[in-house]
Design brief:
CATH superfamily of the largest domain: Riboflavin kinase-like
CATH architecture of the largest domain: Beta Barrel
Helix content: 25-40%
Largest sheet: 6 strands, parallel
Strand order of the largest sheet: 1-4-3-2-5-6
Number of strands: 14
Number of domains: 2
Order of helices and strands: EEHEHHEHHEHEEEHHEHEEEEEH
Structural class: alpha/beta
Shape: elongated
Number of helices: 10
CATH class of the largest domain: Mainly Beta
Strand content: 25-35%
Distance between the termini: 27 Å
Oligomer: single chain
Length: about 325
């Protein structure tokens, strides 16, 4: 995949392309449907399947007080686009100057003169241009005028729910990670460094990996069944993760993300991990003693082992975990 981080970097061979435009936060099932259609249209005409996204999120420039917490980093979005066979991505720096472009200026100057697009495919709620004054109808009219094909891809739904970044964000923050996984078509994950904890767990309960993450969307406090990956050594474990404030030990200042691996390390402790959230087990709660907490953790571990044992008997594992 070719990744361009400014218009200056874009090469002359970007064209001809079938292009989709959006923020694509989370790269959920609706985004994936658009990407698949981009790939199909590009293959039909011998064009390059392409995407245009923005960094930072446009709202952080035009209305920072309303800027959403992001589900995925730009790097993660690009990884997921590549999984869907998008061949080139322009990550356009979103500046006040870009925000001022009228819809026709955006289409003429950017899409035609700089990128030479042949087709633009977007979702039903697509808006662009100054103050989001352009919509899919305006885009289609500009396509007829400027010479590119326009296609609007219908929204994707799951069990009657429309997939959207905002609905997925709400589900995760409510602890409904299994629902989020269905809408994302992949479990929601947090990445970061393994950091040293207080040492209390290893001495009084069970040893855990403590995750420090810069993620903006954190699942609600509670205990979850998870899948943990060592991003450097390509090792994976079934796991159980507590998100919360360690109330048994009186910690109320900083949220912690502690993961207990259900399998052996088989090597050194990982330094950079990804924890994917499969389903919620229970609320976080305070226990009278570390011993009673340890007993509950061991119960949670038994629940987790049964869950993963059943899961591995289903076809499609690990995809079935969503």
């Amino acid at each position: 995949m070719k990744v361009y981080r400014s218009l200056v970097e874009v090469s002359a061979d970007f064209s001809p392309s079938a292009l989709t435009i959006g923020n694509f936060d989370g790269v959920h099932m609706g985004h994936r449907r658009i990407f698949k259609r981009v790939v199909a249209v590009a293959a039909e005409h011998g064009w390059k399947p392409s995407a245009l996204t923005f960094d930072p999120h446009p709202t952080r420039i035009v209305a920072p007080e309303r800027a959403p917490r992001l589900l995925t980093s730009v790097a993660r979005r690009v990884e997921l686009m590549e999984e869907e066979h998008i061949e080139q991505v322009l990550i356009l720096p979103f500046t006040p100057e870009v925000a001022q472009l009228a819809p026709e200026e955006f289409a003429r100057q950017l899409l035609i003169e700089r990128l030479g697009v042949r087709a633009v495919l977007v979702g039903e709620n697509f808006h662009f241009g100054h103050r989001q004054s352009g919509n899919v109808k305006v885009l289609a009219e500009l396509g007829q005028k400027l010479g590119f094909r326009t296609e609007v891809v219908p929204a994707a739904t799951c069990r009657g729910r429309v997939a959207s970044s905002s609905s997925i964000r709400r589900a995760i923050e409510a602890g409904r990670v299994a629902l989020a996984a269905r809408l994302l078509q992949d479990p929601y994950g947090l990445e970061g460094e393994v950091v040293r904890g207080h040492g209390v767990g290893a001495k009084q309960t069970v040893p855990t990996l403590n995750l420090a993450t810069s993620a903006e969307v954190i699942p609600a406090r509670g205990v979850y069944l998870t899948r943990t990956s060592d991003l450097e050594a390509r090792r994976n474990w079934d796991s159980i993760t507590n998100v919360g404030y360690r109330p048994t030990f009186g910690d109320q200042d900083q949220i912690s993300i502690e993961t207990f691996l259900l399998g052996p390390l088989d090597g050194p402790e990982p330094h950079h991990i990804r924890v994917e959230f499969l389903c919620r087990v229970r609320d976080e709660r305070k226990f009278e003693t570390p011993e009673s907490l340890k007993a509950q953790i061991l119960k949670d571990v038994r629940v987790a082992r049964n869950y993963f044992r059943r899961l591995k008997n289903w076809s499609g594992y690990p995809l079935a975990r969503a």
